[in-house]
Structures are given as C-alpha cells and as structure tokens.
Amino acid sequence: xxxxxxxxxTRRRTAPTKGDLRERAILDAAERQLDTAGADAMxxxxxxxxxxxxxxxxxxxxxxxxxxxxxxVERTVTALRAGVDAVDDGGAPADVVRLGIERTAxxxxxxxxVMRTAVELSPSVPAVDRAWRSAVVALADTMSGVAERAGxxxxxxxxxxxxxxWMTERxxxxxxxxxxxxxxxxxxxxxxxxAAFGVAS
Length: 201
What we know:
By secondary structure, this protein is mainly alpha-helical. It has two domains: 1-63, Arc Repressor Mutant, subunit A; 64-201, Tetracycline Repressor, domain 2 (Orthogonal Bundle). It is 82% helix and 0% strand. The chain has helices at 2-14, 18-36, 44-51, 55-61, 65-87, 93-121, 126-149, 154-178, 182-197. Helix 2 crosses helix 3 and helix 2 crosses helix 5. The radius of gyration is 20 Å and the shape is elongated. It starts with a helix and ends with a helix. The relative contact order is 0.10.
C-alpha cells in the first residue's frame, strides 16, 4: 500500500502542472506567430490572442515578448541538443556525424522560424543569445568527443568542432532564408565535417 501511494505521489509530481501547460500553450502560440507573421509583427497582445488568453495572464508567465522568444529558443535548442546527443552512442564517428547533421536539418525543417529568429536576435537580445550559444557550446562539446574518437588530437578537437558547429548554423540559416534544399545543405556539411575529422565518407 505504501509503495502504491509513493508511486501515485511520483506520478503526480511528474505530470505537467496547469502552469506548465499554460506556458507550453504560450510558446506554441508564439511559434505559430513566427511562422505566419514574423518576429517584428509579434507583440505580447498578438501572442496572448493566439494563445487564447489575456495579456495579463501572459504577463504572469513572461515579462515581455523577448522573454517569450528566449524561452521558445531555449525549448527548441534543448530538443536539438537532445537529438544530437542521442545519436552519439559511441558508434563510428562517420555515422554519428551523418545522423547529427540529419537531426539538425530536421530541426530546421520543423522549427526553422524559431532558429532563424535565434540567429537574428542573438546580437541584440541577451537572453536569446545565451540560449543559442549554450546550444553551440553543448553541441561542440559532444562533437569534440566524436572528433577525438576519429583520431583528431585532443588539443584541436574542441576548437575544430566549435568552428564546424558555427559553420553549420550559418549554412542552414542561409539555406532556410533562401528556401533552398536543406538536404543539399546537409550533404555538403556532412562532407566537410567528415573531411575535417579525417574519416571516409
């Protein structure tokens, strides 16, 4: 009986709260606004309207439009980091690189407007910049380990991986802006990553 009660308490703690669900709804609404109107046209009022709540209710969770955008970027980069980390199972470096680039391309397909906004707002919105840079650092750290497994000297694995991650951001960003093929961009990036790591494609 005690174990059953403990299990029930655990389930209650892990289930999303009403506040969690409301915050998720606000971020979902903000992403829809980015898709349809763009960041410049967004306001707290338009996000609240899209979410079906009042401006006052939105301010209970976020203090400004930029706070909403920063939280949206944080949610997106958390998913990106998790996707890339999931493919690094200690397998062959070439396979990890290919799958990591594929996961990143998929995130650009599904959340491209958020990622574009992150790139464009980073220079002027510190909270967005912190969230975006944290993703770059985490991804570079993951890929640095992959580089070392491929035979890249430890002293150069980290800076090379960081440079490649920033390059990847720029290539996908430009492909998204131009509405060109993300698959082609991914293929090019995969070739460059593998060449830099000195592994066969």
